[in-house]
## 1
Amino acid sequence: MSVTQQRLPTRQNVQKVLKNFTVQQEGLIYLNGQVLTERDDTDVELAFRQESNFFYVTGVTEPDFHVTIDIKTGHVCLYAPNINPEHVMWMGMPDSLETLMAKYDVDEAVYVDQLDQQLLSASTVYTLPITKTDKFQANIKLCTAEESKKLHNAFAEARAVKSEWEIEIIRKANEISSNAHEKLMKASQEGANETQLHALFLYECHRYGALFQAYYPIVGVGKNAATLHYNKNNALFKQATDIVLVDAGCEVSCYASDITRCFPVGGKFTPEARTIYSIVLDMQKACLDACKAGVAWEDIHNIATKVACDGLLKCGVLIGDKEDILANHVVAAFFPHGIGHMLGLDVHDLGGYPEGTERIDAPGIRNLRMRRDLQSGFVVTVEPGVYFCDFLIDPVLNDPKTAKYINKEVLDKYKSVGGVRIEDNIVITKDGHYNLTTVPKEIDEIEALMAA
């Protein structure tokens, strides 16, 4: 289960970018990799993580590199930092050019002192909007801002559809993260705390070679779980009946996983927690059943909203006519975020909103991180939730137009649940999908795992 470094076939990604970048038939695409940074006003180095687009076309995980891609020929040239004796003293001898050629899927590797000559000889140098060009020589012919934007769109479209080898890396990240989530369930007990579970997740990922998290882990118990991106992660587990929400996922070779599970501190769901959890699980199952190529992502979101409405009506939190409740966006007070997003080299990956696509301006769905039809090869999260956050619910209760749809007495009964979210990572296929996430999510499975 250990993660091993291997030569990634990133030349395939270069060809995908070029296929989507139809501005010109010649010139150079130039990208600069991430540099090693230091904590403010110190020389303490921060953990290095490569810029995602640079990694996409090179596979390079080291700082201070550059790359050019010849648009006409597809020739990929990697530029390594010049050997600096002081750097060698502190950090060791860097890889030779021959070693770099063996490690990375490029046509040529040279030192960075040859970069300017290459850029000066290009008819046009195309860069991404984030590319640093302030130190370029004045006579280097740079692309326009509009062309730069089109290059960004080409990267976004290329990265949206994953190849089989990319999916296998994301599967490995899911494998490691799924194992870690299970270990957290087993470790949970009254008297423990969020910090301990956070630390255990990091440990379980590190021990299998995944040294980076795709995002800062969320470990929230009780009402903390009602905050979508809660990150204090320091509260005590005071009651065995409280629900813990853990949203965490590691990276493998810069590719993300993004998994959420909820479980009771002491291993047994209360009737109230069981009810809300079952509603969210029903939401996710209905969404997963509908996921396949050609389906609009907002339709998946709307399925989740309707199933949430059914569940909250059945348990008595909501009252009244279902269609009126939906028309007045009452469910958004309990399910305020989108159903999911693209996943890849970034946890909220590129490509969610193609050029010219507008957001839907309505409660809840306006927070959808993606609006497009699903395609085979997309990797997306499916993460419905139901939350009891006073800040979001009180405006609905205080508005006479919508207050009539909420039974406050029943609402108060369920508030202690805090929040429930269930999140899996799936790959879209022509006729459906397959799931990369393996953590148990049925109530009986969770309780059995925690009792073992």
## 2
Amino acid sequence: MGELQASSGSIIYRLALRKHATDAPEPSSIQAIIKTLRLQKHPEGGYYVETDRDARRVPSPFLHRDAEMQMGSLTKGGKAQDESSPRTTRSASTTIYYYLTPGTPIGHFHRNKGKTVHTLHKGRGRYVIIHGDEVQQTKENSEGYLSENGDGKTLNKARVESFVIGHDLGKGERLQWIVEGGKYKASYLLPDSEGEEGRGNEGDGESAEGLLISETVVPGFEFTDHNFMREEDLESLVTEEQYQELGWLLPRHG
């Protein structure tokens, strides 16, 4: 698991990101990219545009009667919709550009039912993935922190993964990463270059170009296959220490 421990630098950086997310105008160079790519604001944070939607339709692998009834996909009479319904099929794949910028630097926790293949084009960022389907036993002390000596109560919590995306492969940064369906993920912008003392200095410097990636979802994305993480979801999936570390990435409503 990538490091989730907060340093003073990273805490300052998070506060700066939150401030920028509400009141920072976009630099002219970033405005030019938004205009050229015809990007629009994404409800997760950042900007996006759909660049491809495969015309081929495939049977939806998510079609389970009970779940679909809860989502209102069955008719009021209780009969399943026609096989050509958008509820029962999906595009074979969809692809978007996704762009985090200094003015909207956070992609808040969410999950998709389909597999997502991410490809980096420019910039740096950090991704956090909560593997809710991979439960690990952890020990937590009375103060809510992970126990260093093995004492404390046993908790069954999800595996949390964190990594940097960027072009410095020698330092472990990633150019491509795949997130299977059903896993919560969040991301945030990092400075264009790493601080001299390593990744703990995520607050050193600024991002002049933002973080531009492509995402290909298989089968194709539909908003009915997407949901945001709630506060109670995060509380149930991670330890108290991890909750305190990751809570700032929850969606901000209202």
